Each structure stands twice: as structure tokens, then as C-alpha cells.
Amino acid sequence: MKRILQLIIPMTGRSGFIKYVCLGILSGLCSFLFINTVTGVLGQIIAGTFSNIREYLLIFLAIILLFVWIRRVLSVAVIRLSQTLFWDLRKQIVALVLKSGYRQLSSRKVEVHAAVVSDVNILTQASQSIIDFFTATVLTVICFIYLATLSMPLFAITLLVAVAGVAIYRLRAGINIRNLQTARSLENNFQDSFNSILEGFKELFMDSRKRKSIFEQQVVPVSAEAYENNTKAYIGFLNNQITGYTLFYTLIAAILLYLNTALEIEVKHTLTFVFTLLYLLGAINTIMVLLPVLVRAKVAAGRLLDLKDKLEQDGSQEVTASPVMFTEKLEQIAISNLEYHYGEDDRSFSIGPVNFDIQKGDVIFIYGGNGSGKTTFVHTLLGLHIPSAGEIRFNDTIVENEHYTGYKALFAVVFNDFYLFNEMLGYNSFNTDKWHYYLRMFELEDKVSMGDNGVFSTTELSTGQRKRLALIAALLEEKPLLVMDEWAADQDPHFRKKFYTEIIPHLKQEGLTIIAITHDDRYYHCADKLYKMEYGKLIPEGVQVYQ
Ligand SMILES: Nc1ncnc2c1ncn2[C@@H]1O[C@H](COP(=O)(O)OP(=O)(O)OP(=O)(O)O)[C@@H](O)[C@H]1O
């Protein structure tokens, strides 16, 4: 419960939460008032002394009106609370994701997806029951106090039965919670397989063996194990519920058949006691039904809080409250003894030490074998990976943590595995003359246009055309540096030639500094500086020759 409240209280505010609690207590009191009045009237009817109908009519009317008012206020509050919880939690996670470190987020995608889709939903549903749970608990406590005033010995026996019920519940609670936790961990595995199916559907649709394999070897076992764990947990909760019922029914039967005479309890009090017990049973039933919901919510809340902590830690390395933006013009970027290690041990890949110098207007090509570290180096150069050692200097400023946000903003990038947004995201105004100019230059004028809202008419293009549009979008950002990772790999020979021999020189003339990873050895002469990446080491190759 503590972990659930840790998420709820910041959203309602402490005073808001106290207001809900007070209303919950009032609601419990109101229910008790009703049962108390009913038993009072019943007692009088049985004794043949009931006469004051008008007085009781007013009492019932007042109780019903109070009940309606409290339920309505509480229900509206619960609807607002659950919606706030649902959307605020999602917003918080998305905001943390956007602040998180690139590397850390890459390894948390599945976890984040499962949290936003599954945990937030579970918690929202549970928040709708939390007031019912609270009201039932308050009612239970009041009913117990009332029972004590009716007959102390009977109350003591009832308390004993209740303690036995709670003990049985606690005995199994640990196993039930563990089963629910295991089922929740399996949700991540399920999401992982499901993402593979959505991302790799082309490959899967080509071959029924792959479809069969992913379904039978991943989806089915995970579903079966999660089914087993959830079912075990819910049956455990159900057993507790049935045990509770059995204990109470036995108690009621014992009171009616034996205890009332053995303990010499008045008929009126026996009736009120049994009637209150039956009412109490309803409240206990509500608690029993809602317990699994709240236990699941506790597991979900734990996951969400852990994820939030992890994301906050991930982001703290580079995102600072007041990022320093670079306003001066790029003259050079000097990199000295730069290293990046994927892991601590010797077997993990690392790059460096790299010494590298970018002068304004440079056209730099980097080539090298697959897995030699080109992308890793470029990601470190871009500030996506925080260097493990060495320094990056922009003009005369050493790039420190507080500079990274501003430093990254210097680069327009088309990644190897780029994502093409369907609009000029983050750029409300840009040079529309350039847009038309680049459209012609990249031979897309008959293919794509842009609406008044800045949205591209389509992104349903061929792979090569999508890359061209991604590059146009990057160029419209008008950043001083352009970085491309194997951009020309998907272009036809005609356009590849045009790219290296016309477009790059043109962009250089416009003042851009260009860094490109490329395997197109026919065009290496188009670079001012050429580097080879080998086993994580950046080797200058004929830099002077091409300058
Ligand atoms: N997220 C990661 N975690 C750990 N190691 C990684 C990760 N990404 C890449 N590597 C390792 O880094 C090495 C270099 O990868 P990188 O993508 O930088 O190579 P590359 O030169 O760009 O290759 P390619 O030409 O195939 O794109 C790889 O051998 C891989 O083992």
C-alpha cells in the first residue's frame, strides 16, 4: 500500500488525499448508521414496540441523502484521481524517457513499453477500488466496535475467528504475491516477443516455420507460465475468501444454535449481533475481493517506481537544469584521447584513444570493416554516448555534462537506422525556398510536398527516397554540422554519383561541415579528409592528399 500511496499522494496532494480519506470514513460511518438504524427498527418490530414511523422516515431519508451525496462526491473524486493517475504517470514516464541517456534507454525499451501499457493500467484500475476498500475497512472497524458494545464474550469469539482468518490470509499472502510478481516479470518477455513479431512481420510472413517457432517457442511458453502463476495467485486469494466465509457462517450458526443460550444473551442482542455480522461479512467480502487487485497494483507500483528511479538516474548524467547552449559560430571541434567502452570487461568492445580534428567546412569520410567501431565513434562524437575518457573541445570550450544538450544541437544527423518523422518536428519555421530547392536537388519534387501545417504529404516512399527526405529534413534544421551514417548505401548509381560529386560540394559551399561514414571507395576522393576505422582505432589515411 505504501508504494501505491507513494505514487498517488504527489498527484492528489496531501490535503486532497486527507479529504478523500475523510470522505471514506464518512461513507463507512454512513453505512454503519444505516445498519444500526435498521437493526434498531427490527428490534422494536420484534418486541412489538415500534410506533414512531415519521421519526424513522426522516432518519432514513437523511441517511440516504447523506449516502447519495458522499458516494457521488467520492465517485467523482475517484474518477478524477484515476484519470490523473493514468495520464500523469504516462506523461512522467514519457518525460523521463525523453531525458534519459541514449545508451540506457536502448536497453530499457521493453521495460518502458510494458510499464506504460500494463502497469499504469493496473494501477489506474486499482485506484478506482481504493476508496471502496477504505470504506469497507472503516465499516469493518466500526462494526467490530459496535459488536463489542452488544456482547463482550461474543465479540471476543468473533475477534478470535477474525484473527484466525487474517492469520490464514497472511500465511498464503507471500506465495500469492510472489506468483503475481513472476507473472508480471513474464509480461516483459511477452512484450519482447510481441515487439519482435510487429517489427519482423515481413520476415515472419515469408516463412511459416518462423511464425510457428516464435509462437510456439516464445509466446506459448510465456503465456502458459504467466497463466499458471496468475491462476495460482488468484486461486490462493479465492481460498482465503472461502475460508473467511466458512469461518463466519460457522460462527453465525454457532451463535444462533448454541452460543446465545450458553452465554445467556438477550434475543434482541443476538439478532442485532447476527445481523451486524452479516453486514460485516459484506464489508469483509469487499476487502477480500479487492485485495488481489491491490496486491497486483502494489507489484505494478513497485515496478513503476523502480523504473522511474532508473530513468531518473540514467538521465542525470547529462541533463542539467540549465543547459549551456553554444551561441558562437563553429570554428573547430578537437577531439583528444577519446575513448568509449561498452562494458567494464576486456571482452566488451571499445574505441580509442581517438584524436580527431574537425575544421569548419571540412568534408570528412570514415570507412572501415563491419563492426570496426565507426557508428560507435560517431555516436560518441555526437554526444549520444558519454565518453569513457578523453575530451571533446568545441572551439575553445571543453564539452562538459552541462554542455551536452547544446553540443548535440550543433549536429543535423541522418542515422543508418534513421526514423523519418512525418513533419519538420520541432521546427515551426524554416526556409521554404530551401525546401523547394532541396526537393528539386534530391529529385523528390513530384513525390512529396508539404502542407501548411508543416506535415509532409507522404512518407510512403521507397527506401532510397525516404533517406533523401530524411536528409532534406536534416538540412532544413540549418545546423553547422551534418553527420550521415552510410547515407548513400540505398541510392541508385546515378544518384550516388550526384550525391558525392554535386550535392556534397554544394553543401560544403553553403558552409556546412560534413562527416560521413561510407563504404563507397569510388568516391573517397570527394572528401577533404579520409579516415579508416580499424578495431576501434581511427587511422588518418591520405588526409593531406585530398585536401
Ligand atoms: N549496444 C551495444 N552494446 C555492446 N556492444 C555493442 C553495442 N553496439 C555495438 N556494439 C559492439 O561494437 C562493435 C562496433 O559496432 P559499430 O556499430 O560501431 O560498428 P560499425 O563499424 O559501425 O559496423 P557496420 O559497418 O557494420 O555498421 C560491434 O562489434 C559490437 O559488438
From TrEMBL:
Membrane topology, record value: Multi-pass membrane protein
GO molecular function, one term: ATP hydrolysis activity
UniProtKB keywords: ATP-binding, Membrane, Nucleotide-binding, Transmembrane, Transmembrane helix, Transport
Transmembrane feature ranges: 20-47, 53-70, 130-148, 154-171, 242-259, 271-295
Subcellular location: Cell membrane
GO CC aspect terms: ATP-binding cassette (ABC) transporter complex
InterPro entries: AAA+_ATPase, ABC1_TM_dom, ABC1_TM_sf, ABC_transporter-like_ATP-bd, Cyc_pep_transpt_SyrD/YojI, ECF_ABC_transporter_ATP-bd, P-loop_NTPase
SMART domains, sorted: AAA
Endoplasmic reticulum recorded as keyword: no
Gene Ontology BP, a term: peptide transport
Protein name in the entry: Cyclic peptide export ABC transporter
Source organism of this protein record: Chitinophaga flava
Taxonomic path: Bacteria, Pseudomonadati, Bacteroidota, Chitinophagia, Chitinophagales
